[in-house]
Structures are given as C-alpha cells and as structure tokens.
Amino acid sequence: MNKEVEEIFSRGVGTFTDTDGVFKEKLLKKTKGEYPRDIIIKLGVDPSHPDIHLGHAVILRKLRQFQDLGCKVVFLVGDFTARIGDPSGKSKTRPEVEQAEVDKNAKTYIDQVGKILRTDKHLFSWIRNSDWFTNVTDLNLPDNYKVDMDVTVEGKTTKIKIPPNSFVGKAVVFEQTRMQVRDLGLKDRISVITLLNVLWGLRAITHSRLIDRDLFQERIKTGQELYMHEMLYPVFQGIDSYVLSQIYGSCDLEIGGTDQTFNMLMGRDIMKANKVLPQAVLSLEILPGLDGKEKMSKSLDNYIAITDTPSEMFGKTMSIPDTAIATYFKLATYTPLSEIKEIEKKLGEPKHNPKDFKMRLAHEIVSIYYGEDGAKEAEKDFIETFSKKGMPKDIETVEANKDTPLVEVFLKHGIVSSRTEFNRLNKEGAIKEIENGVYRIGKHRFIKIQVS
C-alpha cells in the first residue's frame, strides 16, 4: 500500500469504518489517476466558539493529507444544528447559540481553516446546513425589503415588485439566498429537508439504537433529563451526510474526533435508508488540553489557538505536563512515528530532561503555523522571558477607555470567555499587572492595555 495512505489510516486514528474497503479502494485509485470523480470528505463543525485550536487542527491536518492526495473537503458549518447544541462529551444540556453569534463564529472558522487546508475550489468547498434545514416559510423579511421579479407575458418581460413577506416574495428570496444556487451553481433542484424527510429517516433508527449511546446511558442512570432535541441531533447530522451526497454527487467519508463516532455512524444509517452508498467513517484520537487530562476546549481554558501569537503558542506548549509530550508529538506535529517512539523511550530514562523534548515540540508546533523563522524567534523569546525573567516582544496591544473595567476589556478582546473565568483567574492570582498597563494572565499570556 502507498505509504502516505497507510499513515493516513494509522496515525492518530481511533476507529475506521469502511465496509468492504470501498473508500480505501477509491483513494488508492485516486492516487494512481484511475478515479476521475471527486472524493468528497465531510467535516462538520458546530460554530459555538469562534477560535480553532490545536485540537481542531488534528482533524484539519489529516484533511490536508487527503487533499494532497486529490480529495475534496466539504467544510459543513452547522449553523442550524448549532442552535440545538451537540451533547457529545457533555453530561448537561447545551444552551442554544443565537443566530447572530453563530454567523460571526462561522465567518471566523472559514477565515482560519485556510491556515491549514488548501482552499482551491477543486479541493475545498463550504456550506451551511441551514441551507436545507430552513424552508421558505421560515423566512421573516423586513417590510421595507425589496423583492423584484421578472414576469413574461406574450413575449414581453416586465419587472414587478412583490410584497416581501408574501409566499411568492419569500420564495424568490429563498432561492436567491441558497448557497446551493448562489455559490455552487446548482439550478435543477434545491435540497430541502422537511418533516416528512426527517420522519422517513427515523424509520431506519430504533429507539434502542439512539439511547444505546454511552452519554445518554449515563444520563439515564444518574436520573438526569434527556431531551428529544438532543436525541435527534445525531439524526440531523446523519441527514447532513445524505444531503451532501445529493449536492456534491457523493459523501464518501466523514471525519471527526472519537467523541463523534456515534453521530458519524448515524450518517451511514440515514444514507442506507435513502438507498445512497453509505459514507466511510474515520474517527481520530482527541488531543488533551494543557492540563493533559481533559479534552482541549476553549470553555475549559486549556487550549492553544492557532491564532495565538508565536510566543503564546510556544509558551503554552511548554506548560503541558511531561506525560502529554508524546501524545502532542503524535497528534499536533508531523514528526515521524519512528522518532516519536525514540522520544517516548528517552522520556523514561532519568538522564534525559523532558524540558528538552518539550522545547523541540513547541518549536515544531509553532513552525507549522508561523514557519521556521517564527519558531526560532518564539524560542528565543521564551528563553529571554522565562529563563532570564524578561517580557516577550510581541505582546498583544489593545485600546480601552480609562474608565472601562478590566473585566470588560478582557471580555471584549477574548482574553477570557466569561466573567466567571475572569473572577476565577483573579482569585487564583493569575492576573497580574507587571508593568504600567501590561498584564500577565497565567504563566504564558501577556496583554498591554493602551488607555485612550
């Protein structure tokens, strides 16, 4: 087997479901130029938080490997399902995310994926699932919204104005705003999911299949409430895969973390029920956060964002526990697996200092996003800052009114995600003003507030 293909299906892989090896056979043919059609790989993202971190990047870098072999990535922004909230990996019901926030986060995601993925049209596409989960009657247009329609009578075309919230007015706007038409150029038909479609899909899903999910079982055993919208989330995700197969001609593979395996396999069930070739499913190991225990997550404040400055990225990497070094090498870098095995071996020997391997790890991670020069500068900055008690050179500078409370400044610029987080950090003594207007947050983050 092609070595690149072999590594794709081994490195960092939790499970791989590919009945009769159909997907793998397509991929091998693609590498030989024997498969002319697009191989479509789906990544669904719930844009409830705006920043992409190294945990997301594990999947994005795997997708880049597929792109390098000629596959096309479809980045599905779950702006509709984000308003429900996927309960994967969470023991409590997630709150809905308001549409305005979803829109803002979705744009940020799209801007950031270009740091890792190729965004050429033949290798990348993106679409929102509100494109098919909302219908004509869901639109509520402003009364002053202008809707014009060309009407041809006896060979003469006239432009007429239509009331925006009439059914015809909504239908015109609906068609004009579908990404399937506007961005992908599809004209023959628009894929729209109705209640009838959902009920048809549910005929293939048993109640025992849904509640068999480990998360739901935990809820039931502990007497916690389990709501129907949460149970239906995997079904909606499965419907997404079916719709993508209609829009793009196929949906050959869905990729995600191991916490998404149940949801992704549901896509196979929905596709089978609709007599469509079911997608293969590739689930990847989950990168732990800076604590080395919990999943990397912005809500837990244990993440490294791919938009962090080189110095922040380097410093945060240096803060991970020694037990997580090998895992980070495997999931967050391109270091060959043979070298990682040697590193693991040396980490168990007293004569080797884990800090040396961590320095190499931080250097390699930063170089992926900022190049070799950026990595060298970040390493130098780290040594100056933490070995010689200096300050980093590329401190983020923000402007604020002199009367604005510190917590408001931190919230506005994303330094903290909530007042609760600010209060916790402040109580722990993790927020310190080390110079006039220069604050250190934790061990490795700095911010300079310029008063205006």
Quick summary:
The chain is an alpha/beta fold. The protein is built from 18 helices and 12 strands.
- Count the domains: 4
Determine the CATH topology of the largest domain.
Rossmann fold
Please count the beta strands (DSSP E, at least 2 residues each): 12
Structural class: alpha/beta
Profile the largest sheet: 6 strands, mixed
Can you tell me the residue ranges where pLDDT is under 50 for at least 5 consecutive residues?
Answer: 89-95
Task: Specify the CATH class of the largest domain.
Answer: Alpha Beta
Order of helices and strands: HEHEHEHEHEEHHHHHHEHEHHHHEHHEEE
State the helicity in percent bands: 40-55%
Q: Mean pLDDT, as a whole number?
A: 86
Distance between the termini: 62 Å
Count of alpha and pi helical runs: 18
Query: Do you know the CATH architecture of the largest domain?
Result: 3-Layer(aba) Sandwich
Strand ordering within the main sheet: 1-8-7-2-3-4
Strand content: 5-15%
**In CATH, what is the homologous superfamily of the largest domain?**
HUPs
Cα gyration radius (Å): 25 Å
Give the overall shape, derived from the CA principal axes.
globular
